[in-house]
Each structure stands twice: as structure tokens, then as C-alpha cells.
Design goal:
15 helices; binds 1-deoxynojirimycin; 27% helix; 20 strands; five-stranded antiparallel β-sheet; disordered C terminus; alpha-amylase activity; eight-stranded parallel β-sheet; alpha/beta; GH; single chain; 509 residues; globular
Length: 509
């Protein structure tokens, strides 16, 4: 069987607002991404995922789309997008774009018409409300001037579509084709499990983002992805879709990955697991035994960066663990999603001043929750302030960068052998060499307490989550380690890749 490109791809998430600003207005843009393609190629990733760059009033950083077929002037033009795709392909990088089908912006022409009383059935309007809450805090219903309420599972500026209306289906099939015709290689589907709400909109007890409930995970949603799969399959070049699917169990997740539905889904269980060998092993076992094509992710634009998650008490420990977790992740069967800045070891910025914050989570929770701005602080490319090379011409970036970003900048780490950036480059290069020649299965090896050892044919990965150094499994060669080994032992918070003594590299069956 030919192996599809996405099966083992390393995909790099670009939160466009915060990656690189070419226009000099302090906000990242498509031309900025284009300028940095050589950096991404050099890093060794296979694909980029661009967060929404469509026309938007930015009530939720672009996840509130007012025009699904155009680029917001903040990010450039359609011409910039086309040039970016062409250049990315020249650099042998695939391009995945975000699609936001659960809700539009309240400034979308359909919603504006609905407010005037035209085509309300494209959204969810009711005379009375149920007890549903917005994921960002507060009620999920907002009253319109004529007294009806509309549903928004996120910000009030993000009204939910009514997927029981066939017009909504037709519209999104057309939007998919619009971007496929412009050469995109795939889609990341926002809130993929959310499109259908239970008939009658009953009150709920538990509305957590991940549980199957009247709010999320209704079975009708699978027909949407069957239709989308047919559209993707009709294009040449293995176009794909990855769902942002939150579920309680891997079995529920696997439903979205049936052969006629989505190619991939994010595997948030990995990202939610604590620093523990038992937790890691359980997630890995559950994943590989239930889903046909696994994905792994440690950070994204919605969660606290994993360096900080793994080491709130001690940033050094957090970085060591983050590097070790990367090696474990890259050794697992499946594809890996990286989030911009993790290759620099960026921490979460936890001390942003309230006046700088922009995330609706902060405002809707009335400041009780800090929101997600701390993982969205613009990337430091160079040492120099005011923007560390993020913006040209002395512009201030849209979120302030802490002073510590100078030391973590690309400029500072490039060419420094033990820097996190050079470690990522080595790990990605080594993976690229191996990944297609090792089996797509994993075998657990006997591991000492606190550690996890597994093998994929000739590749052995060992990670030590414990507090004492452990002996390495039998091997012929050390390929790569996340920190120096000590007297041949694997220190705590460290991972290593080894070539096994017994198995010669075997081709994929
Ligand atoms: C998930 C996106 O990743 C997040 O950033 C956004 O706020 C919500 N979906 C709503 O679109």
C-alpha cells in the first residue's frame, strides 16, 4: 500500500497573528509566513497548518469568520495566499488551512440578514433559552433587539450555524472547493464534533467540552464528514482533513476516523496527560489500539505551553521535560503536530498585563480566567527589541513579549549545538530518515520504574519520567538524546533514541 503523506507528517501550526509580521503593523500576516518558509524547511517539518486568516472582526482571533472566501486585510490578500501556497509547495511543504463550520462571525452577511429577519433558519434562534453555557463563560444565548435569542457556544460574536438546514451544507462544500481549487492540501476542522445540537435543545447537566451530550458529538455530524471526504477524494494529491474533536474516550474519537470520514483527528489525551509514565503509557495504548491513524500534539494556540505545564515550579525542569516529550512523541507511530515557538522552548507568558489581553475567554470570564493570550505571544526571531524581529520598522507587537524572549530567539539559538532549536532540527532530521523504514507498530520493552521503553523495529525510545537515573535498554548506538547521558545512564526528565542491537532495519510490510 502506498503510504499517504499525512500518515507520518510533522505538521507545524502557525498562529498567523503571532508568527511573523511583514507589513509592519505589529500583527503577523501571510507575507510574513512566506518570508519564513526557508526557516520551516530548515526546521524539517512536512506541512504547515495556518490558523484562520479569513475576513473577520477578530472577536476570537479570526475564529469568527465574516467571509469564508477572502483574506482579512490584516493578514494580506488572496494574492498573498496564492503566492504563499505556491512557495510552500516549492519548498516541499504542504499547506493545511483552518475551516470553521460550527459558527460564523456575527458580521457574516447571513447573520446580518438573520438579524433583519431574513433566513434566520441558517442559525439557531429561539423565543426561550435553555441552560447551555458558552465555552468561554456566561450563557450561550444572546437576545436580539426583536426579543429572540440566538445560540453561540463561544463568543456572542460567533453565532452557531443550524446544520439541519441544507443550505449550510451546500455552502461549506463550496467553501471547501474554493480553497482546494487554490491548492490547499488539507483542512483542520474547528470544533468538528459540535455542528449538530440535539433536537429540541434540551437542558444539560454536564456540558464539558469533551463529553458526548446534547451539545457535542451528535451522530448526524458523521454524514457531514462523509460528504466532505467525497469532495477531498475527488481532488488529486491526497488532500486530507484533521478534526479538532474533543471526546471522552478513544472509541468515540475513532468514530470520526472511519475510512469514509476524516483522515486524522487531534489526540488531546496526550496533551492532557500529566508527566507520568503510567499516564503516557495508557494514552499511547488507548490510541494505537483504537484509531487507524494516530496523531500526537503537545501544545497549540488554546492551551498552556507544555514547557510551562511540565514545570510550573521550575522552568529548567519544564524545558528538560518538554525536550524529552518531543523525542517520545516523534518516536510514536503517526503524525505529530508542533506549535510555533515550541522549537525555541518558549514558555507560557503568565504575566501579561490585563490591558494587553485580547482573548474573549478573559473578558467573558470577567477576568477570572487568564485566557489563551499567554501562548500566543509573537515569536522572537532576533535579540533586539522592540519586537525581537517579529515586526519590521520598530512596530510594537500586538501582545508584548517578555524580556526573556531575547535569549530564546532564533538568532540566539541558531548554530548553538545544545540549543532547543538545534535539538528540534536534529530530531526532525533523524525522524525523517527513519520514519518510513520502521514498522507502524510499537512494542513495549521491559522498563525500570519511572521510565518507559518502547521499540519500533530497530528504533528504541526510552524516556525517564522518574527521579533517578536508569540504565538504558540494550542497544548498538545512541542516535539522539534530549540531554546528555550521565555515565551511560538516562537521567530523570530525559529521553533517548537508540538503535537496537538485535534488529536490522526492516522495510515496512
Ligand atoms: C477551537 C479553536 O482552536 C479556538 O481557538 C477557538 O476559540 C474555538 N475553537 C472556537 O472557534
Amino acid at each position: 500500500m502506498d503510504i499517504p503523506w499525512w500518515r507520518d507528517a510533522v505538521v507545524y501550526e502557525i498562529y498567523v497573528r503571532s508568527f511573523a509580521d511583514a507589513s509592519g503593523d505589529g500583527v503577523g500576516d501571510l507575507a510574513g509566513v512566506r518570508e519564513r518558509l526557508p526557516y520551516l524547511r530548515g526546521l524539517g517539518v512536512d506541512a504547515i497548518w495556518l490558523t484562520p486568516f479569513y475576513r473577520s472582526p477578530m472577536a476570537d482571533g479570526g475564529y469568527d469568520v465574516a467571509d469564508y472566501r477572502d483574506v482579512d486585510p490584516l493578514f494580506g490578500t488572496l494574492g498573498d495566499f496564492e503566492a504563499l501556497v505556491a512557495d510552500a509547495h516549492e519548498h516541499d511543504l504542504r499547506v493545511i488551512v483552518d475551516i470553521v463550520p460550527n459558527h460564523s462571525s456575527s458580521e457574516h452577511p447571513w447573520f446580518q440578514a438573520a438579524l433583519r429577519g431574513e433566513g434566520r433558519d441558517r442559525y439557531i434562534f429561539r423565543d426561550t433559552v435553555n441552560n447551555w453555557q458558552s465555552t468561554f463563560g456566561g450563557p450561550a444565548w444572546t437576545r436580539t433587539p426583536d426579543g429572540q435569542y440566538y445560540l453561540h457556544l463561544f463568543a456572542p460574536g460567533q453565532p452557531d450555524f443550524n446544520w439541519r438546514n441544507p443550505e449550510v451544507h451546500a455552502e461549506f462544500l463550496d467553501v471547501l472547493r474554493f480553497w482546494l481549487d487554490r491548492g490547499v492540501d488539507g483542512f483542520r476542522i474547528d470544533v468538528a464534533m459540535g455542528l449538530y445540537k440535539a433536537e429540541g435543545l434540551p437542558d444539560v447537566g454536564d456540558q464539558s467540552f469533551k463529553s458526548v451530550s446534547p451539545v457535542w458529538g451528535q451522530p448526524e455530524v458523521h454524514n457531514v464528514y462523509r460528504d466532505w471526504r467525497r469532495v477531498l477524494d475527488a481532488y488529486p494529491g491526497e488532500r486530507m482533513a484533521v478534526g479538532e474533536v474533543w471526546t471522552d474516550s478513544p472509541e468515540d474519537l475513532a468514530l470520526y476516523l472511519r475510512p469514509d470520514e476524516l483522515h486524522q483527528s487531534f489526540n488531546f489525551a496526550w496533551l492532557q496527560a500529566p508527566w507520568s509514565p503510567t499516564a503516557f503509557k495508557k494514552v499511547i495504548d488507548d490510541t494505537v489500539s483504537t484509531v487507524p491513524f494516530a496523531t500526537w500534539v503537545l501544545s497549540n494556540h488554546d492551551v498552556v505551553r507544555h514547557r510551562t505545564r511540565y514545570g510550573t515550579a521550575d522552568p529548567g525542569t519544564g524545558l528538560a521535560r518538554a525536550r524529552a516529550a518531543l523525542l517520545a512523541m516523534l518516536a510514536l507511530p503517526g503524525s505529530a503536530y508542533l506549535y510555533q515557538g515550541e522549537e525555541l522552548g518558549l514558555p507560557e507568558v503568565t504575566d501579561l498585563p490585563d490591558e494587553a489581553r485580547q482573548d474573549p475567554v478573559f473578558f467573558q470570564s470577567k477576568g477570572k480566567l487568564p485566557g489563551r493570550d499567554g501562548c500566543r505571544v509573537p515569536i522572537p526571531w532576533t535579540v533586539d527589541p522592540p519586537s525581537h524581529g517579529f515586526s519590521p520598522g520598530g512596530a510594537e507587537p500586538w501582545l508584548p513579549q517578555p524580556e526573556s524572549f531575547a535569549e530564546l530567539s532564533v538568532e540566539k539559538q541558531e548554530g548553538v549545538a545544545d540549543s532547543t532549536l538545534e535539538f528540534y532540527r536534529r530530531a526532525l532530521a533523524c525522524r525523517r530518515e527513519l520514519v518510513r523504514s520502521i514498522p507502524y507498530t510499537l512494542e513495549w520493552l521491559k522498563s525500570p520504574e519511572g521510565a518507559l521503553f518502547f521499540a519500533r523495529g530497530p528504533l528504541i525510545c526510552a524516556i525517564n519520567c522518574g527521579t533517578r537515573p536508569v540504565r538504558l535498554p540494550k542497544h548498538e548506538e545512541v542516535l539522539l538524546s534530549s540531554a546528555p547521558l550521565r555515565r551511560g545512564l538516562l537521567p530523570p526528565d530525559t529521553a533517548v533514541w537508540l538503535r537496537s542491537a538485535s534488529t536490522a532495519p526492516s522495510a515496512e510490510e
